[in-house]
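Incident log, entry 3
Record: Cell division protein FtsA (707 residues)
Problem: checksum mismatch between cached and fresh output.
Input:
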Amino acid sequence: MSNRIFALDIGTRSVTGLIIEEQQHTFSVVDYYMKEHEERSMLDGQIHNVIAVAQTVKMVKEKLEETNGPLEKVYVAAAGRTLKTVKATSAMKLNQQTISANETLKHLELETIQNAQKQLVMDTDDYYANYYCVGYSVVQYMLDGEKIGSLIDQSGNEAAVEVIATFLPKVVIESLISVLERTDLQMEALTLEPIAAIEVLVPESMRRLNVVIVDIGAGTSDIAITKNGTILAYGMVPIAGDEITEAISDHYLLDFSEAEQAKRNIVIKGEHVIQNILGFEETIVAEQMTEHILPAVEKLAASIAEEILQLNTKAPQAIMLVGGGSLTPRLREVLANKLELPHNRVAIRSVDAIQKLQQPYHVPNQPDFITPIGIAIAAKQNPVHYINVRVNQKNVRMFELKQLTIGDCFIQAGISINHYYGKPGLAAMFQFNGQEMTIPGGFGASPRIYLNGERALVNSIIQPNDEIVIEKGADGVLPTVTIEEVAGITKPITVYYQQQPFELTPKYLVNDIEQSAQYVIQDKDDIVLKPGTLKEFIYLIDPALLKAQVPFKIQFNGKLEDLGSFLGHFTINQQIAQVDQLLQDKDMIELTTNHTPTIKNVLDQLGEDIFETITVTFNEEIVTLQKLNKRIIRNQAEVGLDEMIQRNDVIECEEIAVEPFVFQDVFRYVDIDLTKVKGLFQIANNGVSTNFLEEIQDGDKLTITWN
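Fresh output:
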């Protein structure tokens, strides 16, 4: 018996017991027995009367023991219809810092699962500990609201993750254990019914296909969907074979059990003799019954199709029907029509479809034996166990559908890992040469996690009776940034005034007190660099130079503008400089005099944009074209850009319409003499033949070639 497996399929209407023998990579059925419940002790796959169900299980067990000896351990399955799937999202502020460790990302995922758990509790009005999280998958990562492949080392304001988490009610497992204890059976391993059917019908190599398995029982039709190498979703509709039986009962005036027997015999043998409640006998043939039950079949198929579309968002590639209800006449064709699938994409699968099962099968080659055999094989190959651990001195019982980690324990214990992060440090806000600047505070440290006294991670694997402790991480601190790191000026610089060198040693005044470049900036500091500006340098060499500058004021577009001193002004590196401009190493400072400004000088100083500009390439040479887009009026007379102006002039700048640029405009900017060129020539714009008056746009590629 060491290689033999005892499995039970505890269904809504009956209990099926199987003894299967494992032989290397295959299995064979040694014995089986099926017994119907004597009363309605189960509803929609959930045990409602433990004592009554236990009595049926005991009968099955004793019958198999007559020829196979004592049975003590059993493989069972939890109904997949009880699984609950929840989608949730969580986000964390980055403040332009990055997630550099997978551990931080894992923490964010766990927080998202806990959000899903909270949503489940709100939807079911239940307690979180009444559910086990049996798995989750990441739907997408997001950075600042946009999808992204990975969050590691990405910089932004906010990171987010969306997951789908699956939960199983604890009561499903507890009721199964209670039934087994009453029949002196020990749960060897557990699986889920949808997993059982998929395990034997859809090997992992085929799960990249979008395939739906529908297990049509007595009270419910269970749905499982595979796609992209995994089990995508589970679902259930609360109608199945009993709906068809009731239609037969109503039409032929039969009690429910007689209608059920008639349905089975007609499906298997093609006809059945009935006696209705009035005592009249009648022979029903398959074609006749099919016509009468067609409305019920339409209703069942419509419900299944609707659930598939809701879970899968579209029709799948193929559908496999299992369970006794799958034999319902016309169901396969009607379901295919509902989903607009070819009829050969919907199939009823029987025992002979199980590749791992040896012949002869020793069980009827029918679809209602798929799930019992699958339970035995799936529970043997992918068993599920209970384990107990302690989290922060609290006992936690885990349902081991997969290899469990510390993170799974936190979820079951109701620990929100986000609450164990240290608080972010406060930012430092200060002024540097009059400019507001901010340095963000440090991140709070991640929680400290211990497994049996040793440091561990949330994805560390756990064992039964492990001791887990989580402690709050240290709070973030104020940023430690020095003046040197902000200013970038730590050494003396040399500038030249009227060709003479001057060495300037920077000094830092923090709140009017001189500090070194290594001073650590504090919140609300006011930092000034001296001599940092042109004005401060001039004051050092000759304060009278500042007084020699005569204000130059004009009226520009109705506003009084002070243009500085055009009769005596400073330049840095041959560019007119403002007195508050910061000096750089090797700057060339000049004082120019006797300069009368032009209109263009004034407009440049005021930052007025007076040109419409495009850049093109002409025979692979970059050329910038300009057209004046303003009309300049000085003292009520229109003037050009080279016109000199005087103090107190009244200048107005008006928008004018700009003619589009054409091909021939480029010749004002390139050196080419068309009169000296012999032979025919061709001109083109972006490789397309054109003419000199054709409009051109920014970025165009212009060419002219001669034959």
